Amino acid sequence: MTRLLERGGVSLEAGGSVLRVEGQVGFEVATALAEAGRGWLAGQPAGTAVSFDLTGVADVSSAALSVLLEWARAARAAGLTLEAVRLSPALRRLTDLAGLERLLPLAGAAA
């Protein structure tokens, strides 16, 4: 894994075709997180299947969901296929509550 961002207890890593986030994602780090992920996505060859792993996001966070939706838009714009999104249980509940589950290829519920 390559570390793309480490800020305020939040880390973003990329490995293979996966972006992985860990920590408490708040609005103070969301912009930097979104930008770092967009930059990585823009560097992937068109047609690549990518996945997002947010199972390490500690709390329910609308900031994390905002970043996730931004990355999904960036992936589409770059001609990438969003293969799977893995969420922590708290983020999964928030996604379901917000009605976003139909917009994302969510992987099975996290343990």
Describe this structure in words.
With 111 residues, the protein is of the alpha/beta class. It is built from 3 helices and 5 strands; from the N terminus they run βββαβαβα. The protein has helices at 27-42, 62-77, 89-98; strands at 2-7, 10-15, 18-23, 49-57, 81-87. Strands 1-2-3-4-5 form a 5-stranded mixed beta sheet. Strand 3 (18-23), helix 1 (27-42) and strand 4 (49-57) form a beta-alpha-beta unit. The longest helix is centred in the first third of the chain and has 16 residues, at 27-42. The model has no long low-confidence stretch (mean pLDDT 91).
List strands and helices in order, with pairings.
Layout: E1 2-7, E2 10-15, E3 18-23, H1 27-42, E4 49-57, H2 62-77, E5 81-87, H3 89-98
Parallel strand pairs: 3-4, 4-5
Antiparallel strand pairs: 1-2, 2-3
Helix pairs in contact: 1-2
